[in-house]
Backbone:
């Protein structure tokens, strides 16, 4: 698994995966989770190169998931793809250990710009 993609919307997970491919990352393997709690389970046996998460999800929100990941001393790059884009939300995300925040709606270029520093050029 290269990317752990966490979003409660199956449609949004498909859109994000398409944007990743359109950004040029065609050989990337993506594992999906529907919420932070499910994603934490997936992290027990895997170490992805990157986590992409929504902010608002049932069971465990994206920010709570990020805080749990960091509390476990896991320093994997963590990015949000969310409609929560106020300066306050961005500040909370970055202060909690997020690497980046992509605002919805987004383009493949937005995804490429965020992923290139982490995954390199495609």
Residues:
């Amino acid at each position: 698994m290269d990317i752990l993609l966490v979003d409660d919307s199956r449609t949004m997970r498909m859109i994000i995966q398409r944007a990743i491919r359109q950004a040029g990352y065609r050989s990337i393997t993506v594992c999906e989770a529907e919420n932070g709690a499910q994603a934490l389970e997936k992290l027990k046996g895997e170490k992805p190169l990157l986590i992409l998460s929504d902010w608002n999800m049932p069971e465990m929100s994206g920010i709570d998931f990020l805080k749990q990941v960091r509390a476990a001393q896991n320093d994997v790059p963590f990015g949000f793809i969310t409609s929560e884009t106020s300066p306050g939300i961005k500040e909370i995300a970055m202060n909690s250990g997020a690497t980046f925040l992509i605002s919805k709606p987004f383009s493949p270029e937005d995804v490429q710009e965020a992923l290139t520093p982490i995954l390199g050029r495609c």
About this structure: The first strand starts at residue 3 and ends at 6. The helical segments are 10-22, 36-43, 62-71, 87-95, 108-119.
